[in-house]
Amino acid sequence: MKKLLLISTITVAFLAGCAMTNPYASNSADSAIANAQAKYNKAHSEMVAWKNTKKILNQAKKLAKTDPKKATALANKAAYQAQTALTQSAEFEKTWRSAMPQ
Amino acid sequence: MLKRLAKIAIISMISGSIMFAANFNAQAEKDRHAFVNYFLKKFKNPVKNQAKYFPYVSIKEIKKDYIYPLSFQAFQDGSLSWYKPSKEQFAEINAFPPYEIPLDDGEALYKKPFANGKTYSSCFPNPAIKQNYPYYDTKKDEIITIGIAVNECRVKNGEKPLKYGKGDIAKVISYLAYKSRGQKINIKIPNANAAKAYEAGKKLFYKQRGYLAISCNECHVKGAGKRLRAEALSPALGATTQMPVYRIKWGGLGTLQRRLAGCVKDTGSEKPKMQSKPLKELAYFLTYMSNGMKLFGPDTRK
Amino acid sequence: MIDAKKLLAVALMGVISASTVYATSNDALVKEGRKVFVTKKLGNCLACHAVQGDPSIPQTGDIGPKLVNLNTYPKEYLFDKIWDPNKTNKNTLMPPMGRSHKITKHQIDALVAYLQEITKAK
Fold first, then answer.
1. Disulfide-capable partner of C50 in B189, B239, B287, C66 (CB 3.0 to 4.6 Å)?
2. Of the given ranges (B14-28, B158-172, B173-187, C3-17), which has the lowest mean pLDDT?
3. How confident is the model at residue A28 (pLDDT cuts 50, 70, 90)?
4. What are phi and psi of C51, to 5 degrees?
5. Where are the domains of chain C?
6. What is the pLDDT of residue A12?
7. What is the Cα–Cα distance from C39 to C46, expressed in whole angstroms?
């Protein structure tokens, strides 16, 4: 039982170590794309997504296999846009009424 | 006694419903008054009020190029209402209005029988109806724009719906608009959900959005009467009276939905779909703001 | 003696060439900044702002203030204003060109260089 625990701990530690140091894992654009997609979906559903975010995200998806580095950069750009759209929307939510003619 | 009680009950029910009915548009009426007053004050005497409303426009330019004071009805002319150079340019263009041919097409379409022999007049026996659109349909619980009404008419008569925004639908609407010229915009807010829709449209109008972080308000209320590069910015008051509009930029007619979708996109936002809920709410709000103004569509713009 | 003269000459040349390099790089930055100012897809600043000291600028809008004497402001202040004007003014109409990544940090630096150069009182 102890042995099993030890082995499993080592395995987990090893896997975690791999995930942190494995150069192949960071080369994949998948997680960046998934992150961008989730943020874009949220921005889109709140109707605050920016003009080109979807286009950039689609470019990232296209390049995911052939050029993961560029794909990741594009996905991060899309994620930044979607996140900024959401953040500014939350900010403007507090202030927009003050812009109305009094 | 019973009769009297019933009477009281009925009276209180009626007055209650009247009170409610008045309540649904109470906020909207407040907003509308402030909105209209803002424009009337702003364009009453721009030279005198330059510091308040046009701080970065020179008095010299105001004296040379601005038209003022503007009456409520004058705002039907959009940017041509206040900017002399545009007004002169379009007076020449409208000597032979570019919308005339599509308008004739619209009349022909209106009168042309569907496959079942009926025409649009089976749905719109009196074509002077545009002043009532968009309206809130309490049974369907949604906003019905004139484009939707035209397509509902087609579907009811076994025809395929038309694509929104431009082409035949804009032509048919332009004929309805032409026949509605001079009618006063008459948008109502019949129930709580309609008031909600109005509020949603209002927020879309005033809240900054897109990568430019600007709102409709910033260009077409605060910005109205100023120039973006060489473009004179049009006032939001009266904006819907000129629809559908023949834009030189488009080289053809476009509906209010098309124009609004383009405007939202210009803030650096994703372009909303025509007849989508937010865009209909925006149209509902914006048209309500011009309540009481006479229609003058179709018209020509840059 | 000759050696000293030579040395001085070399040193002088060094100073001169260094300053020309500096001048040309600033000129290049100013030139780039002007492009950012007038190009629709970049800053498109002229859509709202007139600018003092550059008569070659095409017709500008009059939504924002005319840009004058910007050389009297610190560079960082101007950079921050262009990056995100909402930070200091909640009601501003001006778009956050930097925060939205519409233009890069380098392009904002160029813009600031251009504006400070062109609005200098001459």
1. C66
2. C3-17
3. confident
4. -140, 140
5. 32-118
6. 44
7. 9
Which one of the listed residues B153, B216, B219, B263 is annotated catalytic? B263
Among the listed residues B198, B192, B186, the one whose alpha carbon sits nearest the alpha carbon of residue B286: B198
Token readout for B208 is 């900054």
CATH code at B24-97+189-301:
1.10.760.10
Q: Averaged over B222-239, what is the pLDDT? A: 95
Fold classified for C32-118:
Cytochrome Bc1 Complex; Chain D, domain 2 (1.10.760)
- DSSP letters of B221-246? TSSTTSEETTEEPPPSTTGGGG-SEE
Among all residues of chain C, which has the CA nearest to that of B211? Answer: C100
CA-nearest of B82, B92, B39 to B300 is: B92
B263 among known catalytic residues: yes
How confident is the prediction along chain C (122 residues), in pLDDT tens digits per residue?
A: 445 555 555 554 544 444 444 556 788 999 999 999 999 999 999 999 999 988 888 889 999 999 999 999 999 999 999 999 988 887 789 999 999 999 999 999 999 999 999 998 76
What does the domain layout of chain B look like in residue ranges? 24-97+189-301, 100-179
Contact (CB<8Å) C59/B55: no
Pick the CATH number of B100-179 from 3.40.50.1000, 1.10.3720.10, 3.90.1150.180, 1.10.760.10: 1.10.760.10
Which amino acid, A64?
A
Residue C76 in tokens: 């960082």
β-partners of residue B299 are B245
Chain B residues in contact with C64 (beta carbon < 8 A): 56
The whole-number average pLDDT for the span B89-109 is 95
